[in-house]
Automatic annotation (TrEMBL), chain A:
Source organism (scientific name): Maritimibacter alkaliphilus HTCC2654
Family, per entry: Belongs to the binding-protein-dependent transport system permease family. HisMQ subfamily.
Residue ranges of domain ABC transmembrane type-1 in the record: 227-421
Gene3D superfamilies to which the protein is assigned, alphabetical: MetI-like
GO terms assigned for molecular function: transmembrane transporter activity
Membrane topology: Multi-pass membrane protein
CDD domains named in the record: TM_PBP2 (cd06261)
Name recorded for this polypeptide: Glutamate/glutamine/aspartate/asparagine ABC transporter, permease protein
Pfam family, one: BPD_transp_1
Signal peptide interval: none
GO BP terms, alphabetized: amino acid transport
Residue ranges of the TM segments: 36-61, 110-129, 136-152, 158-176, 183-204, 224-250, 262-286, 298-318, 355-380, 400-420
From TrEMBL, chain C:
InterPro entries noted in UniProt: AA_ABC_transptr_permease_3TM (IPR010065), ArtM/GltK/GlnP/TcyL/YhdX-like (IPR043429), MetI-like (IPR000515), MetI-like_sf (IPR035906)
One annotated Gene Ontology cellular component of this protein: ATP-binding cassette (ABC) transporter complex
Family classification: Belongs to the binding-protein-dependent transport system permease family. HisMQ subfamily.
Protein name, entry field: Glutamate/glutamine/aspartate/asparagine ABC transporter, permease protein
Stored PANTHER family: AMINO-ACID ABC TRANSPORTER PERMEASE PROTEIN YHDX-RELATED (PTHR30614:SF37), MEMBRANE COMPONENT OF AMINO ACID ABC TRANSPORTER (PTHR30614)
Phylogenetic placement of the source organism: Bacteria, Pseudomonadati, Pseudomonadota, Alphaproteobacteria, Rhodobacterales
Database matches in PROSITE patterns: ABC_TM1
Major place of residence: membrane
Automatic annotation (TrEMBL), chains D, E:
PANTHER family: AMINO ACID IMPORT ATP-BINDING PROTEIN, PHOSPHONATES IMPORT ATP-BINDING PROTEIN PHNC
Lineage: superkingdom: Bacteria
InterPro entries: AAA+_ATPase, ABC_ATPase_HisP-typ, ABC_transporter-like_ATP-bd, ABC_transporter-like_CS, MetN_ABC_transporter-like, P-loop_NTPase
Keywords annotated in UniProt: ATP-binding, Nucleotide-binding, Transport
GO MF, any single term: ABC-type amino acid transporter activity
Family: Belongs to the ABC transporter superfamily.
One Pfam family hit: ABC_tran
Name this polypeptide is given: ABC glutamate/glutamine/aspartate/asparagine transporter, ATPase subunit bztD
All residue ranges annotated as the ABC transporter domain in the record: 9-243
Length: 433, 316, 419, 249, 249
C-alpha cells in the first residue's frame, strides 16, 4: 500500500458541464427524450396536442362577432368557406351582459360592479394581511352591511339598523351581565339582535324613511341572474357561514356532549346529502317549515340553504385550524385568567382562522362552482340562462359558444382563487411564527 | 288573502311557461306575450287596473306546482291540464279552461310514419312531470307496443334533442306541438300525427283555500269568453262601456249592478280585463290563430254557439 | 349561580342548548303541521304503493308503468348506485394514471396532465355534465344515418358497436341461442332465472347463468390464491418464487370459459331494426354523459390526491430501497405504494362520496336516478314534497354514512404505529 | 430575601388521578410568602402536574389546595381569583404568535384586569425593561430567540402583578447560551422577594436562590430540604440516585 | 484491522454537475479492501454527493467509478451488482415505517437476494443482536428511539451481506445520548474488517477507527492522510481552518 497522504496545492476552478447536460439540448434530453419510453411518450403527446389544436383552433377562429342570429352566423361561415364550421360569437356579443348580470336593470348595473370592487377592497386586508393596513378591516366590517344594500337597494336606514342589532346586543350584554349573570345575558345578547332584525328593522326603517327618505332603488332578487348571481350566492353564503362554521366547529370541539353531538349531527347530515336535495328543500319545503304567511323569495331561500351547506364544510375547515394550534396556547390563555370566550376571541380564533384561510378559499371555490346547481330549481344562473337564451328563436341550437364562455368565466375565477390559496398555503408553511 | 297581497304588492306574480311560442314567451325586448300570458294580463288588469303589472315567473312542468303551492306565484297559467289529482290531491283549484287540447305526436316527415300506432320501438322525447308522460305510458301499454322514453325538462331541450335526431318523435299537447313546429327552421319537414291520445283541458289554476281569489280568476276568464259571445271587442269596448241596451253587457262592463263589488274589485274590472288584450276570440287569433305561424283552428275552442266548447256561465 | 360552579356549569349550558334545540325543532314541526293543515295536505307514505304511471328508460330490474312508486324509486336508487360505482371505478383509473403521469419526468406529458387537472377542477361539474351531453347529442350520428344503401355512419368493431346520438349500443352477453321459432339451436341451453320475493316492490330476478358463472369465477380465484399461497411457501423455504402467473390466470379463465360455452354463451350484437338499434346493451346518452363527466371531474381531484400521496413519501424511502438493491418496480410495490395508500385512501374515499352525491345532478340530463324518480317525477305527480324530499335525503345520507363508516374502519386498521 | 410567616399556598392531602393512573399521591405542602422553592425529580414523577394543579390547569380529585386564601374547588370564581394572583411560565414559552411582544404583555391586563390601555402599555414596558428587551416590544415572538421569548413570557406573567410565580422547566427548551439570560432574570425576581415555585434541573440555580428544594418521585414528595443540605447530604436513596445521575450528566 | 492490497473502489477523474453547478471536480480515489475512511469537510463541499455516486444514487457525468470490479455506467446490471455489494446508512435512517423492524431487515434479502424467509429471519435476528436490539424485532420504526432506529438501519444494510458500507452522517440527527450507541456499533463493525466510507464530523470516531481521513472542500479532495497526521499536522490552509472550527465547537 502506497503512502496515502495527499495535499492539493491549487484548487480546481469550476468548469462548465459537458454540452449535452445544459442548454436547450440538455433540457430536451432531460425532459423529453431521457429514454426510449420517454421519447415515445413525447411523440404521442405532440401528436395529441396537434390533433386537439387542429380540431379546435379553426373552429375558434371565426369572425362572427357581429351576427345577430345563428342563421346569420351560418351565412358568414359559409361565405368564408370553412368546412367544419366555426364558432358563432354573435350570441356572446349580444348576451354577455345578460350572462354576467342576469336581468339586473341596465342603468343600475354600476351597483353590482361597485359591490364587487368593494368586495376586493374589503377582502384585501384579510387575504393579503401583510401588504394592506389593518385599518382597512373597518371597511370590511362596514362592507358586510353595505353590500346587501347596494345589491338589493332600499332605504339606507335598513343596513344601518341591521348594523345596530349587534350593537344593541352588546349594550344589553354589558348592562345585564352583572344583573342576571353571564349565560343568561349571553342568550339575551344573541336573542336581542335576532328579534330586532326580525320584527323591528323593517317597520323602523320604513318609519325613518318616511321622515328622512334616503335610499336607492329597490331591485328584486328575481332580477338577479347570471354570473353575478353565482358570485353573490357564494359570497353571501360563505360570509355568513363563517360565523356559523366557527360556532359549529367550537361546538364540535367542545367537551359538552350534547352540544358536541348536536354539532356533529348537523355537520354530518349536511355533508352527507347532495346539495341538490338541500336546494329542493329550499324550493319546495322551506316555506312549509316557516310560520304560515312567511314568504321570502326563492333566491333568499337558496341563500339560506347554501349558507347551511357551506357552514358544515367551513366548520370542518376551522376544526382543522383549531386542531393545528398547540395545546400550550389554550393553557397560556387559561393561566393568564382569560375566560373561554375571551381566549377564543383573542387567542385561539385569530390564529385558527388564519391557518384556515386556504381551506376556506377552497370551500368557497367548491361552493361557487356548486351555485350552478340553482339552475336545476329554475334560477337563472349562467347555466340556467343558456336555456332561456336557446329558447330565443334566433339562438335556437347554439351550444358550445355559451358553455365555452361560461366555462371560461368559471375557470378564470376558480383558477386564480386556487392559485391564491396555494400561495397562501406555502406562505403559511414557511412563516415560522 | 291573495287579493290583498297582490294589491299591496302592486303586481301579480304569474307562473308561466319558460318559453313556448304563442303561449308564453318573451319577445326581443323581454316583454312577455302569448295566449296564456294574455290571461295573466287580463287578471292583472281586473285586479290592479294595469295589464303590465305582472311579474312572470318562468316554470318548467316540474317546478310549476311547487311554485304555486309555495306561494311563489299567485296564479299559474301554463298550459296545465285539469285533472282530478291536481285539483283534489295536489290541492289546487282550476278556474276554467282556456284551451281544450289533446296529446299528439310530431315526427319528421322523412321518418315515413303516418300513425302513432306505427311508432313501435321509437324513441320518444317527453317532458317529465306532465300528464302527457303518464298518457304516453298508457297509450303504448294499451296498444301493446314498445318505446324508449327520453325524459326532458323543458320544451326548448325537447326541441333540441328532437331536431338533432336523438328522439324519433316528440309528444306533448297538440297545441304545444304546433307552437314548437312553428319555430322550426323548416316547419314543413315535420308532421303532427292524426292521433290525439288524450283529453287535455288546459286552464289557469290557483291554490286551494282562497275561494275569493279563485272566483276572480274564474270570472275574469269567463268575462273574456262572454265578451266574445256578446261581441265586446277591444275596439268597441269604450263605446259599449257608455251603456247599451243589453243588460248582460252592461253588467259585464260594470255600468249596471255591483258585480265588481261582489268580487272585491272595481266596477269596471271586466272592462279593463277585456280591454287589456281583447276578448277570448281576439286573444286566440292574435297569438295562436290561423293567421299566425302556429295556425291553430278554433275547433273545440269555438264558442258554444259555433259548435265549440267555450261556454261562459251567465253574468247574473 | 350554577354557571359559576364547574360541577354544574356544563350541565347547565347543555340543558340550555338542548332546550334551544328542542324549541327550534318544535317550532319547525309546528309550522309544518300548521302549513300542511292550511294547505289541506296530510303526511303519509301511502302514495308509495300507488302505481307510478310513468316509464323509466334505464331499469336494472323489470319495471313497467303499472309498478308502484316504491319500485320506481328503487329503479332510481339502483341507477344512482350504478353510475356511482362505475364512476368511482373509472375516476380511480383515470385519476391514478393522470396523477402518476403528472409526476412523469417527461415535461410535455406532465404539462398535459396539469392542463387536464386544472381544466376539470376549475369548471363546475354541472357544466361538464351538460357539456358531455351536448357533445353526445350534437356530434354523434342519429341511428337513421346508419340506414340506407350508402349510410353516412357505420358500426365499429366488426359491426358490434354503434355510436349514435341516442347512446352507445354494445354487444350483450346472452345464453342459449334460439332460432327464429324459439327452438334452441344446440343442446346447450340457457338456464333461465329464479324469481325472488314474488310480487313485492323489491322483487328481483337472478339469472342462473350469472350465478353459475360467478361461482365458477370465484372458485377459480380461490384456487388461484391457493396457488399463490403455495408460491409464497416455496419462496419462503427456497427463496425463489416459482413463476405462477400463467397458471394462475389459466385457473381463473379456463373453467369460466368452459362453463360459459356449456351454457351456450354468445354475444348478442346490436342491429338496426325499425327506428333504433335493437339487441345488445344500450348505454344511453344520459348515462354516458353523466358517467364520463362525473368520472373525469372526480379524476382530476383524485389525480391530485395520488400525486400528493406519492410526493408525501419522502425521497429518502426510495433511496433507501434503491441502496438495498431493490428494483424500481418493486420499490413502488413494496415501499412506496403501501405507504402512499395510507395517505391516499381517506381523501380518495371522500372523493367517492362527492361523486356519489354529485350523481344527483343526473336530472340535468334526464338520467333516471333517485333524484329523477323519487324526488323528481314521483314528487311531481303525487305532490308529496315533504315525504319525497325527506326520503331522498335519508337515502343519500345512509349511503354517505355507509361509505364514511367503511373509511373509518380502514383508517383505524392502517394507522401507523408510533411512540 | 426573607420568608414571611404568611401562608401563600397550602396543599393538604392532595391526590390526583389521570384515569386510573395515580399521578399525585397525598401531597402535603405549605408555601410561605416569599419562599423560592425548586422542585426536581425524574421524568414522569408528577412535577408538572403538581404545579399545574396550583392554578387549576389540572383538577385534583382529593384533598385541598388553598392559594392566597382561595380554595380551588368547583367554584369558578375562586379559580379566576387564583389565576389572577398566580403567574405561570411554561417550558415552551407559549407566547401568542399573532400578537406583538407588547400586545402579548398588555392583553391580559386589559381584558382580565380591565386596566386602561395606556397604563397597561406603561406597565408592560416597565417589565420588558426589567427582562432587558424593551427594544423588541413591537416585534413578533417568531422574530425573537428562545431566550428572549422566555423572558417575554416572564414579563407577560409579571404584567398581571401576580403574587406567586410558577415555572415549569423554563430553561429546558433553550440552547445553552440562552439559559443564563433567563436564569438571571429569575434570580433578579427572586431577589425582589417574589414567591416562586420552580420545576427545574438547573442545580446551580437551585443552590443560588432556592430556600427549599423538593424532590418528587412516583407522584410523591420524597424529600425536601434547604438546598445545601439537599445536595450535599441527601437522605433518601432515590434522591441520591437521582442526584448522581443529574450530576453525571 | 488490516488493509489488504485489493482495490475495493476505484474512482478516476470523476466529475459531476448539478445543472451548471460543478459539485464534484476531478475526484481520484482508491479505496482498498478493509479500509476505514472518514470523509469530512464544510457543508456543501460535496461529501454526500460523492458517497451517493458510489452506489449510483446520483449519476456522475465524467470519469469512472469502479466498485468491486464493476464499472458504474448506464448498464443497469452493473448498478444492481454494485448496490447489492454496497450497504448504505443515511442521516435520517430512512427505515420503512409500514414494516416491522424484522420486516425491514428481511425485505431486501428476500426480494433481491432470494434468500428463503426462514434464513432471512435468522440472519436479521443475528444482526439485530449484533446491534443489540433483538427484542424490538416486532415493533414498528415509529416506536423506537432515534439511536435504536439508526442501529436498525445498520442492521438492515448488513443483512444484505455487503462488502462495503457507506455512512452519510449517521449520527448527526441523533440526540447526544444516542450518538454513542451508534458509534459503538460502527466501531465494532470496523473491527471486524468491513470496508467503510463514512461521512462524519465525529472526530473521536475518526481518530479511533479510521485509517485515512479525507478532507473535501468545494467539490474537491483537498487533503488526505492518516488520522493522527491529519489532525495534528494538517497541511493545507483550508484544512487547518476547518479543524479549528470543528474543535472550537
Ligand atoms: N393528560 C394526561 N393524561 C394521562 N396521563 C398523563 C397526562 N399528562 C401527564 N400524564 C402522565 O402523568 C405522569 C406525570 O406527568 P408530569 O408531566 O407531571 O411529569 P413530570 O414530572 O413533569 O415529567 P417531565 O420531567 O418529563 O416533565 C406521567 O407519567 C405522564 O405520562
Ligand atoms: N439535487 C441537487 N440539485 C442541485 N444541487 C444540489 C443537489 N443536491 C445537492 N446539491 C448541491 O450540491 C452541493 C453539495 O451537496 P452535498 O449534499 O454533497 O454537500 P455535503 O458536503 O454533503 O454537505 P452537508 O455537510 O451539508 O451534508 C451543495 O451546494 C448542494 O446545494
Ligand atoms: N307540456 C307541458 O308543458 C304541459 C303538459 C300537460 N298539459 C300537463 O299539464 O301536464
Ligand atoms: Mg414536566
Ligand atoms: Mg451531506
Amino acid at each position: 500500500m502506497e503512502d496515502l497522504s495527499y495535499v492539493r496545492t491549487d484548487m480546481l476552478p469550476e468548469r462548465d458541464p459537458p454540452a449535452s447536460e445544459v442548454g436547450v439540448i440538455g433540457w430536451l434530453r432531460m425532459n423529453l427524450f431521457s429514454g426510449w419510453f420517454n421519447s415515445i411518450l413525447t411523440v404521442i403527446a405532440l401528436a395529441f396536442i396537434y390533433l386537439v389544436l387542429a380540431a379546435i383552433i379553426p373552429w375558434l377562429w371565426s369572425p362572427t362577432w357581429g351576427a345577430g342570429s345563428l342563421s346569420a352566423c351560418r351565412e358568414i361561415i359559409a361565405e368564408l368557406g370553412k368546412e367544419h364550421g366555426g364558432a358563432c360569437y354573435g350570441v356572446i356579443t349580444e348576451r354577455w351582459q345578460q350572462l354576467l348580470f342576469g336581468f339586473y336593470p341596465e342603468e343600475l348595473r354600476w351597483r353590482p360592479i361597485l359591490t364587487f370592487i368593494g368586495l376586493f377592497v374589503a377582502l384585501a386586508p384579510v387575504l393579503f394581511n401583510e401588504t394592506f393596513p389593518g385599518k382597512m378591516l373597518w371597511f370590511t366590517g362596514a362592507f358586510l352591511f353595505l353590500a346587501p344594500w347596494l345589491m338589493w337597494g332600499g332605504p339606507i336606514w335598513t343596513p344601518l339598523l341591521v348594523a345596530a342589532g349587534p350593537a344593541l346586543g352588546f349594550v344589553a350584554y354589558r348592562y345585564l351581565v352583572s344583573v342576571i349573570g353571564n349565560l343568561a345575558s349571553v342568550i339575551v345578547a344573541v336573542l336581542i339582535p335576532v328579534l330586532f332584525w326580525l320584527f323591528l328593522v323593517g317597520p323602523l326603517s320604513q318609519a325613518i324613511d318616511g321622515v328622512v327618505p334616503l335610499g336607492i332603488e329597490v331591485v328584486e332578487s328575481r332580477l338577479f341572474g347570471g354570473f353575478m348571481l353565482s358570485v353573490w350566492i357564494g359570497v353571501v353564503a360563505i360570509a355568513i357561514s363563517l360565523v356559523l362554521g366557527v360556532i359549529l366547529a367550537l361546538g364540535r370541539q367542545s367537551d359538552l356532549l350534547i352540544v358536541k353531538y348536536l354539532s356533529v349531527g348537523f355537520i354530518e347530515f349536511i355533508r352527507g346529502v347532495p346539495l341538490i336535495t338541500l336546494l329542493f328543500v329550499a324550493s319546495t319545503l322551506l316555506n312549509i317549515f316557516m310560520p304560515p304567511g312567511t314568504n321570502f323569495d326563492i333566491i333568499l331561500r337558496v341563500m339560506i340553504m347554501a349558507t347551511l351547506f357551506a357552514s358544515a364544510y367551513i366548520a370542518e375547515v376551522i376544526r382543522g385550524g383549531l386542531a393545528a394550534l398547540p395545546r400550550g396556547q389554550y393553557e397560556a390563555a387559561d393561566a393568564l385568567g382569560l375566560d373561554y370566550w375571551k381566549a377564543q376571541r383573542l387567542i385561539i380564533l385569530p390564529q385558527a382562522l388564519k391557518i384556515s384561510i386556504p381551506g376556506i378559499v377552497s370551500t368557497f371555490i367548491g361552493l361557487f362552482k356548486d351555485t350552478t346547481l340553482v339552475s336545476i330549481i329554475g334560477l337563472l344562473d349562467p347555466i340556467g340562462l343558456t336555456g332561456s337564451i336557446r329558447a330565443d328563436a334566433n339562438w335556437n341550437g347554439i351550444v358550445w359558444e355559451l358553455y365555452g364562455f361560461i366555462a371560461l368565466l368559471f375557470f378564470i375565477s376558480c383558477f386564480s382563487m386556487s392559485r391564491y390559496s396555494m400561495w397562501l398555503e406555502k406562505k403559511l408553511r414557511t412563516d415560522h411564527r | 288573502a291573495t287579493l290583498d297581497d297582490v294589491q299591496a304588492r302592486g303586481s301579480l306574480k304569474c307562473g308561466s311557461n319558460s318559453g313556448l311560442t304563442g303561449f308564453a314567451a318573451p319577445d326581443a325586448n323581454g316583454h312577455w306575450e302569448g295566449f296564456d300570458v294574455a290571461v295573466c294580463r287580463a287578471v292583472a288588469a281586473a285586479v290592479l287596473g294595469d295589464p303590465e303589472a305582472v311579474e312572470f315567473v318562468p316554470t318548467t312542468p316540474k317546478t310549476r306546482f311547487t311554485a304555486l303551492a309555495s306561494g311563489e306565484v299567485d296564479i299559474l297559467v301554463r298550459n296545465t291540464t285539469w285533472t282530478l289529482t291536481r285539483d283534489v290531491d295536489l290541492k289546487f283549484t282550476f278556474t276554467g279552461v282556456n284551451y281544450y287540447d289533446g296529446q299528439g305526436f310530431i315526427v319528421p316527415k322523412a321518418l315515413g310514419v303516418s300513425s302513432a300506432k306505427e311508432l313501435d320501438g321509437a324513441t320518444v322525447c317527453i317532458q317529465t312531470g306532465t300528464t302527457t308522460e303518464l298518457n304516453l305510458a298508457d297509450f303504448f301499454r294499451t296498444n301493446n307496443i314498445s318505446y324508449e322514453p327520453v325524459p326532458i325538462e323543458t320544451n326548448a331541450e325537447a326541441q333540441q334533442q328532437y331536431l338533432a335526431g336523438a328522439c324519433d318523435t316528440y309528444t306533448t299537447d297538440a297545441s304545444g306541438l304546433a307552437a314548437t313546429r312553428a319555430s322550426f327552421e323548416n316547419p314543413a319537414d315535420h308532421a303532427i300525427l292524426p292521433e290525439i291520445i288524450s283529453k287535455e283541458p288546459l286552464g289557469p289554476l290557483v291554490r286551494h283555500g282562497d275561494d275569493e281569489w279563485a272566483d276572480i280568476v274564474r270570472w275574469t276568464l269567463n268575462a273574456l269568453v262572454a265578451a266574445e259571445e256578446f261581441g265586446i271587442t277591444s275596439t268597441n269596448i269604450e263605446e259599449l262601456a257608455s251603456g247599451t241596451d243589453n243588460p248582460e253587457i252592461n253588467r259585464i262592463l260594470g255600468t249596471e249592478g255591483t258585480m265588481g263589488e261582489m268580487l272585491g274589485l272595481e266596477a269596471d274590472w271586466a272592462m279593463k280585463a277585456i280591454a287589456a288584450g281583447g276578448n277570448y276570440g281576439e286573444i286566440f287569433e292574435k297569438n295562436i290563430g290561423e293567421s299566425t305561424p302556429i295556425g291553430l283552428a278554433r275547433g273545440l275552442n269555438a264558442q258554444w254557439k259555433d259548435g265549440g266548447l267555450q261556454y261562459a256561465p251567465p253574468f247574473r | 349561580m350554577l354557571i359559576y360552579d364547574s360541577r354544574y356549569r356544563s350541565a347547565t349550558i347543555q340543558i340550555v342548548a338542548l332546550i334551544g334545540f328542542l324549541l327550534l325543532i318544535g317550532w319547525l314541526v309546528s309550522n309544518t303541521v300548521q302549513n300542511l293543515a292550511d294547505l289541506g295536505k296530510s303526511v303519509g307514505f301511502g302514495f308509495l304503493t300507488e302505481p307510478a304511471g310513468y316509464d323509466i328508460n334505464q331499469r336494472l330490474l323489470d319495471y313497467d308503468s303499472r309498478d308502484s312508486h316504491a319500485r320506481a324509486s328503487l329503479m332510481g336508487l339502483l341507477n344512482t348506485l350504478l353510475v356511482a360505482v362505475l364512476g368511482c371505478i373509472m375516476a380511480t383509473i383515470v385519476g391514478v394514471i393522470v396523477g402518476v403521469l403528472r409526476l412523469s419526468n417527461n415535461w410535455l406529458v406532465a404539462r398535459i396532465m396539469t392542463v387536464y387537472v386544472e381544466m376539470f377542477r376549475n369548471v363546475p361539474v354541472l357544466l361538464w355534465i351538460v357539456f358531455s351531453m351536448a357533445i353526445l347529442i350534437e356530434t354523434l350520428p342519429a341511428p337513421s344515418a346508419f340506414r340506407g344503401d350508402e349510410p353516412s355512419a357505420s358500426m365499429l368493431l366488426g359491426d358490434s358497436v354503434a355510436l349514435t346520438n341516442r347512446g352507445v349500443y354494445v354487444p350483450e352477453p346472452l345464453f342459449g341461442r334460439m332460432d327464429e321459432e324459439g327452438h334452441p339451436l344446440t343442446w346447450r341451453q340457457g338456464l333461465g332465472d329464479i324469481h325472488l320475493f314474488g310480487e313485492a316492490w323489491f322483487r328481483f330476478d337472478v339469472s342462473l347463468e350469472l350465478v353459475v358463472f360467478l361461482s365458477t369465477l370465484i372458485a377459480g380465484i380461490l384456487v388461484s390464491r391457493l396457488i399463490g399461497q403455495r408460491a409464497d411457501r416455496i419462496q419462503n423455504s427456497t427463496g425463489v418464487r416459482p413463476k405462477t402467473f400463467w397458471l394462475r390466470a389459466a385457473v381463473i379463465v379456463v373453467p369460466s370459459v368452459i362453463v360459459l360455452w356449456l351454457m351456450g354463451f354468445y354475444l348478442g350484437k346490436p342491429a338496426l331494426r325499425g327506428f333504433n338499434f335493437d339487441g345488445g346493451t344500450h348505454l344511453r346518452n344520459s348515462f354516458i354523459a353523466l358517467w364520463l363527466a362525473l368520472s373525469l371531474y372526480t379524476a382530476a381531484f383524485i389525480a391530485e390526491i395520488v400525486r400528493g400521496g406519492i410526493l408525501a413519501i419522502s425521497k429518502g424511502q426510495t433511496e433507501a430501497a434503491a441502496a438495498l438493491g431493490i428494483r424500481p418496480r418493486r420499490i413502488m410495490s413494496l415501499v412506496i405504494l403501501p405507504q402512499a395508500m395510507r395517505v391516499i385512501i381517506p381523501p380518495l374515499i371522500s372523493q367517492y362520496l362527492n361523486l356519489t352525491k354529485n350523481s344527483s345532478l343526473a336530472i340535468a340530463v334526464g338520467y333516471m336516478d333517485l333524484t329523477g324518480t323519487l324526488m323528481g317525477i314521483t314528487l311531481n305527480q303525487t305532490g308529496r314534497e315533504l315525504e319525497a324530499v325527506m326520503m331522498t335525503m335519508l337515502i343519500y345520507l345512509a349511503i354517505s354514512l355507509a361509505i364514511s363508516g367503511a373509511m373509518n374502519v380502514y383508517n383505524n386498521r392502517v394507522k401507523l404505529k408510533e411512540r | 430575601m426573607e420568608v414571611s410567616d404568611e401562608v401563600a399556598i397550602q396543599i393538604t392531602d392532595m391526590n390526583k388521578w389521570y384515569g386510573t393512573f395515580h399521578v399525585l399521591r397525598d401531597i402535603d405542602l405549605t408555601v410561605y410568602r416569599g419562599e423560592r422553592i425548586v422542585i426536581c425529580g425524574p421524568s414522569g414523577s408528577g412535577k408538572s402536574t403538581l404545579i399545574r394543579c396550583i392554578n387549576r390547569l389540572e383538577e385534583h380529585q382529593q384533598g385541598s389546595i388553598v392559594v392566597d386564601g382561595n380554595e380551588l374547588n368547583s367554584d369558578l370564581k375562586n379559580v379566576d381569583k387564583v389565576r389572577s394572583e398566580v403567574g405561570m411560565v411554561f417550558q415552551h414559552f407559549n407566547l401568542f404568535p399573532h400578537l406583538t411582544i407588547l400586545e402579548n404583555c398588555t392583553l391580559a391586563p386589559i381584558w382580565v384586569r380591565k386596566v386602561p390601555r395606556k397604563e397597561a402599555v406603561d406597565r408592560a414596558m416597565h417589565f420588558l425593561e426589567k427582562v432587558k428587551i424593551p427594544d423588541q416590544a413591537n416585534k413578533y415572538p417568531g422574530q425573537l430567540s428562545g431566550g428572549q421569548q422566555q423572558r417575554v413570557a416572564i414579563a407577560r406573567s409579571l404584567c398581571m402583578m401576580p403574587r406567586i410565580m410558577l415555572f415549569d422547566e423554563p430553561t429546558s427548551a433553550l440552547d445553552p447560551e440562552m439559559i443564563k439570560e433567563v436564569l438571571d432574570t429569575m434570580i433578579e425576581l427572586a431577589e425582589e422577594g417574589m414567591t416562586m415555585l420552580c420545576v427545574t434541573h438547573e442545580m446551580g440555580f437551585a443552590q443560588a436562590v432556592a430556600n427549599r428544594v423538593i424532590f418528587m418521585a412516583d407522584g410523591q414528595i420524597v424529600e425536601q430540604n434547604e438546598p445545601k443540605e439537599f445536595f450535599n447530604n441527601p437522605k433518601s436513596e432515590r434522591t441520591q440516585q437521582f442526584l448522581s445521575q443529574i450530576i453525571g450528566h
